[in-house]
Write a structure and sequence with these properties.
The structure holds 2 protein chains of 2 kinds. By secondary structure, chain A is an alpha/beta fold. Chain A is built from 6 helices and 15 strands. In chain A, a hairpin with a 2-residue loop joins strand 3 and strand 4. In chain A, helix 2 packs across helix 5 and helix 3 crosses helix 4. The longest helix of chain A is centred in the first third of the chain and has 15 residues. Chain A is globular. The longest helix of chain B has 16 residues. Chain B has a 9-stranded mixed β-sheet. A 5-stranded parallel β-sheet of chain B has the order 14-13-15-16-17. The chains are: A alpha/beta, B alpha/beta. Chains A and B meet through strand 2, helix 3, helix 4, strand 9 and strand 10 of A and helix 4, strand 7, strand 8, strand 9 and strand 12 of B. Strand 15 of chain A pairs parallel with strand 17 of chain B, so a sheet runs across the interface.
């Protein structure tokens, strides 16, 4: 079977930062592979190692700059990658769920996988909606927030656990083809080996513009307009203990004794 | 149209808190648009649920009796049919695990934009301004939308609706296509029993991402031993396999209410806070004075945990 994994390079933000308009100023930003996608890649690669998947394809929407990050998926074992970018996406502040759905759906229809794995959410914009939206759009089944997948995939069914709130898991069977959104903790993502990193440079990364995948620019016009970004006001009324580590530890020790919870 | 259709959440026979909160959010929005608030409750003991949901501000409750538990295909079909029938401007759903399992599908099917995990909503009669967080809560953003939309709301951001309402309760005869149901829920399982019940502890020493390496956990274990405390953690520690699931505090883990909760190297993501905000006294040890954990801490030490924790151990080991 063929597995497609959607991956994204996300922006990471330093503890101290400044905002420039509706963006965080560049100098405070880093880039990393989206944490949730890392688990999705690992799950796909494990399915390949278990002899269930024949091919793992990583798909991303992003500019050329993100290639180094996306190659992490190849270094960890994905066979090839598809990167979609277009001048039309250059000036978009926030690519909304519908726009991402149109683009990813077009790639998935072209690739025709049996299973799509997607991170539950992206660490930057945190919509947590694209996987399910794509599934509905292309007529696949789906499951959101999956933290366990049985690897036998017997009779075209994925047996999954969905992580609900309050320490409860839902046991669900989902017909394939399907999109599963993968929760952190489902597996232990591997570090890319040096050999893997070397090999990743040789693996194919197809770059496609919107026209190449048959997506009209007008269909990806985002309806959600980002109008402001600001740091949330601190609501802290905590007592901040100041001083050396010895002094602050002593304050805490005193509190614990006062409360009678430590001797 | 200007009406609002909000969808309730329930599990294993119980309405979830967000079902009452979404009434408050929906009523506020309906007041701003000048419309009615419709509530949908789907599957399970819908008549019983409808009675409980009939609180102040609800104009109509539509019950869809089909199956016992949440199934996203049933919810998607029922809500899209209700949308066709009622033509509301906004469909509101909880930003719960189940909400995220059907709200994006409804939006796609109805060709509407979807905005998730909102913490504030404001409508001036034409434009919806949705407030949400990005970068793990480091910033808040406002997002404008014209026209109809599907919106999911974060739990515990709006107060629960109270009082008794006089909503019209009507059974909605949704035409559920069984052939279109592609997933089957086979049951539920509680996770994280095990050796220790962290929800029983009086003193929790809780550790997060700031611990950096698995080996460093020994330092926190030593602290717990020295204090006679119970060890717990935030999600990343459990995801890394460094502690078992029964130690996880948070939305998807355990809710704890100790006398004192010491959060060490925990930034305080909303999902974590949901599990520990009921602690009597909260102490945070973190290098970042702006970390969200500081907003709910009673006492804070802005310092390196690797400097403070050994001092604390020494104090109690003496």
């Amino acid at each position: 079977m063929k597995i497609l994994v959607t991956v994204k390079e996300v922006a990471t933000v330093e503890d101290e930062f400044e905002i420039d308009g509706t963006e965080i100023a560049d100098q405070y930003l880093g880039a990393d592979l989206n944490e949730w996608d890392d688990y999705a890649i690992e799950e796909a690669v494990q399915l390949q190692e278990d002899g269930i998947a024949d091919e793992v394809v990583a798909v991303t929407i992003g500019p050329e700059d993100c290639e180094q990050t996306i190659r992490q998926a190849l270094a960890k074992g994905a066979d090839r990658a598809v990167r979609v970018w277009d001048d039309a996406l250059e000036d978009v502040d926030l690519l909304d769920v519908n726009a991402k759905t149109e683009i990813l759906s077009a790639v998935i229809e072209e690739e025709d996988p049996d299973l799509v794995l997607s991170g539950v959410q992206a660490g930057d914009d945190s919509f947590a909606a694209t996987g399910v939206s794509v599934a509905e759009n292309i007529g696949f089944q789906w499951g959101a927030v999956v933290n366990h997948l049985e690897h036998d995939l017997d009779d075209g069914v994925a047996s999954v656990r969905r992580e609900l709130e309050g320490g409860v898991e839902e046991l669900t069977n989902i017909d394939l083809p399907a999109v599963l959104t993968i929760q952190t903790g489902i597996n232990e993502p591997r570090y890319a080996s040096l050999r893997g990193i070397r090999q990743a440079q040789q693996k194919p990364m197809d770059v496609k513009a919107l026209a190449d995948i048959g997506v009209d620019e007008s269909t990806i016009e985002t309806e959600l307009e980002l109008t402001d970004m600001y740091e949330p006001e601190s609501e802290s009324d905590a007592t901040f203990w100041e001083g050396s580590a010895e002094e602050t530890a002593s304050e805490l020790g005193e509190l614990l004794r006062d409360k009678g919870v430590a001797q | 149209m200007t009406d609002v259709l909000a969808v309730a959440d329930h599990r294993r026979g119980e309405l979830r808190d967000v079902s009452y909160e979404i009434i408050t959010a929906g009523r506020q929005l309906a007041d701003e648009t000048g419309g009615d608030l419709h509530l949908a409750v789907i599957s399970g003991t819908v008549d019983d649920f409808a009675d409980k949901l009939n609180r102040e501000g609800v104009d109509a409750i539509h019950t869809v009796s089909h199956g016992e538990e949440f199934n996203h295909d049933v919810y998607t079909q029922a809500v899209t049919q209700l949308y066709d029938e009622l033509a509301p401007q906004y469909v509101l759903t909880p930003n719960s695990v189940n909400g995220l399992d059907y709200a994006p599908a409804i939006a796609n099917q109805l060709d509407l934009p979807v905005v998730t995990d909102t913490i504030d909503l404001d409508n001036d009669g034409e434009t919806l301004v949705a407030t949400r967080e990005m970068y793990g809560g480091k910033v808040e953003t406002t997002n404008q939308l014209e026209g109809d939309a599907v919106v999911t709301i974060r739990g515990a951001e709006w107060p629960a609706a109270e009082g008794t309402g006089d909503a019209a309760i009507e059974a909605f005869d949704a035409d559920i296509d069984e052939d279109a149901i592609g997933s089957t829920v086979n049951g539920f399982e509680e996770v994280g029993g095990g050796d220790v019940d962290i929800s029983e502890a009086d003193l929790l020493v809780s550790v997060g991402r700031g611990i950096e390496e698995e080996e460093n956990l020994d330092l926190i274990r030593d602290l717990a031993d020295a204090l006679g405390a119970t060890l717990s953690s935030s999600r990343p520690i459990v995801d890394n396999g460094w502690l078992p699931k029964n130690r996880q505090v948070g939305q998807s883990g355990k809710v704890v209410t100790p006398d004192v909760y010491i959060a060490i190297g925990i930034s305080g993501a909303v999902q974590h806070v949901a599990g520990m905000k009921g602690s009597d006294t909260i102490v945070a040890i973190n290098t970042d004075p702006n970390a969200p954990i500081m907003d709910i801490a009673d006492y804070a030490i802005v310092d390196d945990l690797f400097d403070v924790v050994p001092e604390l151990i020494e104090e109690f080991d003496e």
